[in-house]
Amino acid sequence: MLDFKSGFGRQVNRRLRKERIIWLTTVDSHNTPQPRPVWFHWDGQTVLIFSERNKAKLRHIAQNPRVALSFNTDEDGDEVGVLIGDAVILEEPPPAARVKTYLRKYKEGIKDIDMTVPQFRESFAVPIFVTPKAMRGS
Questions:
Q1: CB of 137 within 8 A of CB of 23?
Q2: pTM, 2 dp
Q3: What ranges in the chain are assigned the alpha helix state H?
């Protein structure tokens, strides 16, 4: 269980609730890290990410579920936050209330990529849960 009561833990928890982008790093078949920015939702225990079908990140997670989630730093390279955890590709949709919260968070972003919510849900149909096990940073 992660300590979100420490000063650093509170900072990470606040960022998980406020940030719009987090970097998901998976490892490919050559053990090369593959970071990519993703949209996400934090519920206090897991990070929900949606992926398009047949993407490399899904193959990577199936091969090795250990992932890292990282925040952008500030302009001086401070405010580092990295979560290490296990990813699971869900066979069933996540709870409807959680999907609704996710979609509300990215309502404008979905418009910005010239999609409607139904188009987004059809394209980004593969849910991934990441359960953080450790965190580090400053």
A1: no
A2: 0.94
A3: 7-18, 56-63, 96-105, 107-112, 117-123
Q: What is the 3-state secondary structure (H, E, C) of 84-103?
A: EEEEEECCCCCCHHHHHHHH
User: Looking up tokens 């890290």, which residue turns up?
Assistant: 33
Q: DSSP state, 106?
A: T
- Please name which of 69, 70, 62, 124 lies closest in space to residue 88, comparing C-alpha atoms: 62
Query: What's the CATH number where 131 sits?
Result: 2.30.110.10
74 — pLDDT class (breaks 50, 70, 90)? confident
Mean per-residue pLDDT of the chain: 95
Is residue 1 in a domain? no
Two tokens, residue 15:
């960022």
C-beta separation of 87 from 67 below 8 A: yes
Q: Give residue for tokens 């079908």.
A: 53
